[in-house]
Design a protein that fits this description.
The protein has ten helices and 15 strands. With about 425 residues, it is α/β, with parallel strands linked by helices. The strands form four sheets. Strands 7, 8, 11, 12, 13, 14 and 15 form a seven-stranded mixed beta sheet that branches. A four-stranded antiparallel beta sheet has the order 3-4-2-5. The protein has a two-stranded parallel ribbon with strand order 1-6. The protein is elongated, with a radius of gyration of 22 Å.
């Protein structure tokens, strides 16, 4: 099966389709149908949502027209897209109870299934649970330290801090020939005010985070209600063994960071990117190990905590509906910041607007709005979701970062 491509800073995906088509999406609908996995995401009215939620049989709603379509396409299951057993009222306010995932045989004609569901009056929107895939990522080793700055000139003793030009750029040419002093995020000055806060939980939506890493283990979020490795859902949140976060692919807490395989000489699978991102956010500062984190603390246990939301697992990848569940999990388990180094860059000739994103990625947007609507930490005034603009060097950001309710971050090089 062909796959839509996703990179770690830039995810390339064709649009999913809805019952109400935007003109810019119509041309892509057929391509999407060929790329979809054997799932449909349905947004239904209140009556249908209530019938399905109370149904005794997973594929029967008690609504004749809807059940007839489910039977015709040999639906294997129809399940709520979100866990309505946690924070039900808050989720209902975002209409999250009206999203359902329909699974059916992969040989079923998915275009016909979409059309048939769309014709049922209680179904307001049909989306493809598009499978997301990524190209290979190259990893390059760096020197531990070159010791060019005078001793005492650094705020922390992390040996690779002086190579982190983006914190405090001294214009060193050995880092980059065109480096310019002062082209940085001014982290050293910011650290005079705060180095982090251990009440804040940052959910890193990416590859799995290596929670045993010597520069991360002390700043990892830990679900104290769960017992590691016992194969049980100890805290009753619907996820087994979720001690350090949630694996969206396997739908449990078994996080990975080094799975993959060589195919024709090239490595496909985990690249360490999730661990890299987590290190930028919260590598433990002043511990004499590795790098410094933006909010990694002062070495006194005061760094922000990292929760891993894994959307890639070796050569396996998540889907749109599972992405949404990962975001929901982060909100339910107390994260205040959602860190997302991925997005949906457009294919040539395609257009994306806020309206199209709302229609094509509605289930994801519902989860994002739920996350942003919460206030999980007294140290912050509400939750925030942050997305990368993308790696395409364009004048405009990719979605979801470009969406009007999302905080989007771009980047620049050591030359400014």
């Amino acid at each position: 099966m062909n796959k839509v491509k996703i990179s770690l800073f830039a995810l390339a995906a064709l649009f999913a389709v809805s019952c109400v088509q935007d003109p810019a999406m119509e041309e892509s609908a057929q391509n999407d149908a060929q790329l979809a996995v054997a799932k449909k995401i349905l947004f239904v009215d209140e009556a249908t949502a209530e019938s399905w939620a109370n149904a005794e049989v997973a594929t029967r709603s008690g609504i004749e027209a809807l059940d007839a379509v489910a039977m015709e396409c040999d639906a294997e299951s129809i399940e709520p897209a979100f866990n309505m057993n946690i924070n039900r009222e808050e989720k209902m306010a975002q209409n999250m109870h009206r999203w359902f995932v329909v699974k059916f045989d992969k040989e079923t004609n998915i275009e016909q299934v979409a059309q048939k569901f769309a014709e049922v009056s209680g179904v307001k929107r049909v989306q493809y649970a598009t499978k997301l895939a990524r190209p290979s990522v190259k990893v390059h080793p760096v020197m531990e330290s070159v010791a060019t700055r005078a001793e005492g000139d650094m705020p922390f003793n992390d040996p690779m801090l002086e190579l982190q030009w983006h914190y405090d750029n001294q214009g060193y040419q050995y880092i980059y020939k065109g480096a310019k002093k002062g082209e940085d995020i001014n982290a050293f000055a910011a650290w005079e005010h705060t180095t982090g806060n251990n009440q804040v939980i940052v959910a890193v939506v990416d590859e799995g985070v290596k929670y045993t890493h010597p520069d991360l283990k002390d700043n990892m979020w830990v679900n104290t209600g769960e017992v590691a490795g016992n194969g049980k859902d100890d805290d009753g949140n619907g996820v087994i063994d979720d001690v350090y976060g949630y694996n969206c692919v396997t739908r449990n807490g078994n996080l990975t960071w080094d799975k993959g395989e060589f195919i024709e000489g090239d490595w496909y699978g985990d690249s360490g990117h999730g661990t890299h991102v987590a290190g930028t956010v919260a590598a433990v500062n002043n511990n004499g190990v590795g790098v410094a984190g933006v909010a990694g603390g002062s070495g006194n246990g005061d760094g922000v905590r990292i929760m891993s939301i894994q959307i890639f697992d070796g050569i396996e990848d998540t889907s749109l509906s599972q992405n949404a569940k990962g975001i929901e999990y982060a909100a339910d388990m107390g994260a205040s910041i959602l860190q997302n180094s991925w997005g949906y860059p457009l294919q040539p000739g395609m257009t994306m607007t806020d309206s199209i994103y709302e229609q094509a990625y509605g289930v994801e947007l519902a989860a994002l709005r739920y996350f942003m609507g919460k206030s999980n930490c007294s140290a912050m005034q509400g939750n925030v979701a942050i997305f990368a603009a993308g790696n395409e060097a364009k004048a405009t950001a990719d979605y979801p970062g470009a969406y009007n309710e999302i905080l989007c971050v771009t980047a620049y090089g050591p030359d400014g």
